[in-house]
Amino acid sequence: MRTLLDLLQESDLIMLCNCQGPGSDFLTVLASSVLLQSFRHNFRAVFTTQILGTMIYFTVLMIEVLPIITPGLSVKSFVHEFQQYYDGQAPVYVEKFYRPGFRYYSGIAGIELS
């Protein structure tokens, strides 16, 4: 299974982490706008700009990031392969983080690993 770092290195998201690209440009414009409004003592505009800018940034970020990291965090493909080899009687031990997804896709509760 690929790690999150592998997925990020294969994607364009690593550009955002290196302070390059459209994401950092948007944050620079947002910060400049907030600073400009705060020097004008218009704190209602500061608050509004900060909230709306953050909402827009995280919406775009989630639209771009979620499809990239979903295969690395989902157990759907693992459960499909697991069900091909599982005999239905042996106890199944599942890591705590993956247990809800494993139960959802397989219908088997599994025993939590501690």
Give an overview of the whole structure:
The structure is a single chain. Helix 6 (99-106) links the parallel strand 1 (93-95) and strand 2 (111-113). The protein folds into 2 domains: 1-73, no CATH class; 74-114, no CATH class. The chain is mainly alpha-helical. The model is unreliable at 13-17 (pLDDT under 50). It is elongated and about 70 Å long. The protein has a two-stranded parallel sheet with strand order 1-2. Helices cover 69% and strands 5% of the residues. The relative contact order is 0.11.
H/E topology pattern? HHHHHEHE
The helical percent reads: 55-70%
How can the largest sheet be summarized? 2 strands, parallel
Radius of gyration: 22 Å
Q: In percent, how much strand structure appears in the residues?
A: 5-15%
Average pLDDT for all residues: 79
Number of helical segments? Answer: 6
What is the global morphology?
elongated
Distance between the termini: 21 Å
> What structural category do the secondary elements indicate?
mainly alpha
The strand count comes to: 2
Count of domains: 2
Uncertain spans: 13-17
Strand order of the largest sheet: 1-2
Layout of strands and helices, then pairs:
Elements: H1 4-10, H2 13-17, H3 22-39, H4 43-73, H5 76-85, E1 93-95, H6 99-106, E2 111-113
Parallel strand pairs: 1-2
Helix pairs in contact: 3-4, 5-6
Write a short abstract of this structure:
The protein has 114 residues and is mainly α.
